[in-house]
Design brief:
By secondary structure, the protein is of the alpha+beta class. Helix content is about 40%, strand content about 15%.
C-alpha cells in the first residue's frame, strides 16, 4: 500500500478518510520497523494539541513533524491548507486538523466502506471483487461485505468470474475497439503485484521493467495491449515499437503521439 495524496470535496472527505483508516494504520505498523501503536497514538495526541489553536507550518511544528509527516497523518486526520508549500518546499506546508477545517466526521465505518466500493465501480466497473479490494486497500471479503449494501449489476467474464458494476454504468458495444492509450512510467496496471497479462504480454515485461531502469518506461497500447514504448527526447515523443501493427493502428498511434507531444511542449 502506498501513501498517496487525493483531492476530494468536503462532502466526501470523511467517507474516504474513514474507509481507509484501518488498513493504512495496519500497513504503517507492518512496514515501519520501529513503529509502535501506542507510540504513534501518543505522537498523534501531541500533534493534535499543537494544532488545536489553528493551522501551523511543518517548520513551526518542529520535532512533532519530523520525518514524513504523511505517516503520522495515518494516526491523526490532517489537511494541507492555503497558503501552503510546494513539493520542493514541503516545510512551508500549513497543516490543520481535518475536524476543524472540514468539519466533524459524519459517517460510520460501514457507510465509508460502502462509498469506497461504489466510487471504484462508478469509475472502473465492471470489475471483479479482487480488483475492487486491491484498489480500496481492503480484503476481498471486506469488499464483498461493503458491496452487500448496494444494488449492483452482475456479469461474467470470459473465464466465468463474477464482475460487478453500478446499475446504470455505461457499457460499450462488444465490437468497440479499445482506443490507443499512452501509459506513464509505473502505471499500476503493469506492475508485478497487479499483473494483467492481457495488457502487458509477459515477453515484453523484461523490456519495460529492468534493473538498469528502476523507473520503467512509458508504454502505448493498441486494442488494450502493450505494443511498444515511448520516451521524451529533446522535446519529442519517440516511439520504440515492440511488434508490427496495422497501418490504421499506426495512424491512430501517431495522432495520439502528436497530441502527447503537444502537451509536453
Amino acid at each position: 500500500m502506498r501513501t498517496t495524496i487525493h483531492l476530494v470535496s468536503r462532502r466526501v472527505f470523511w467517507r474516504y478518510a474513514v474507509a481507509v483508516r484501518g488498513t493504512r494504520r495496519a500497513w504503517s505498523l507492518r512496514v515501519q520497523a520501529t513503529a509502535d501503536e501506542d507510540a504513534m497514538l501518543e505522537r498523534a495526541r501531541r500533534l493534535r494539541e499543537a494544532l488545536a489553536a489553528g493551522p501551523r507550518t511543518v517548520k513551526e511544528l518542529g520535532p512533532l513533524a519530523e520525518g514524513f509527516v504523511g505517516l503520522l497523518g495515518v494516526w491523526v486526520d490532517l489537511v494541507r491548507v492555503p497558503p501552503s508549500g510546494t513539493w520542493e518546499r514541503r516545510r512551508a506546508d500549513r497543516l490543520a486538523l481535518a475536524d476543524d477545517w472540514v468539519g466533524p466526521c459524519d459517517v460510520t465505518d460501514e457507510e465509508a466502506a460502502t462509498h469506497l466500493v461504489w466510487a471504484y465501480l462508478r469509475a472502473f466497473g465492471p470489475a471483479s471483487w479482487r480488483d475492487v479490494a486491491s484498489w480500496a486497500g481492503m480484503s476481498v471479503s471486506d469488499a464483498r461485505a461493503a458491496g452487500a449494501n448496494l444494488t449492483l449489476a452482475r456479469f461474467r467474464d470470459e473465464s466465468g468470474r463474477e464482475l460487478v458494476d453500478v446499475p446504470d454504468g455505461l457499457l460499450p458495444d462488444e465490437s468497440t475497439p479499445a482506443p490507443v492509450r499512452f501509459l506513464p512510467h509505473w502505471d499500476a496496471t503493469l506492475l508485478v503485484h497487479a499483473r494483467r497479462t492481457g495488457i502487458l504480454p509477459e515477453d515484453y515485461r523484461p523490456r519495460v521493467f529492468t534493473s538498469r531502469n528502476p523507473f520503467s518506461v512509458g508504454t502505448y497500447l493498441v486494442d488494450g495491449r502493450v505494443v511498444g514504448a515511448w520516451s521524451v527526447r529533446d522535446g519529442r515523443i519517440v516511439l520504440e515499437p515492440y511488434e508490427a501493427i496495422s497501418p490504421r493502428d499506426e495512424q491512430e498511434v501517431e495522432m495520439e503521439r502528436a497530441t502527447l507531444e503537444a502537451f509536453h511542449s
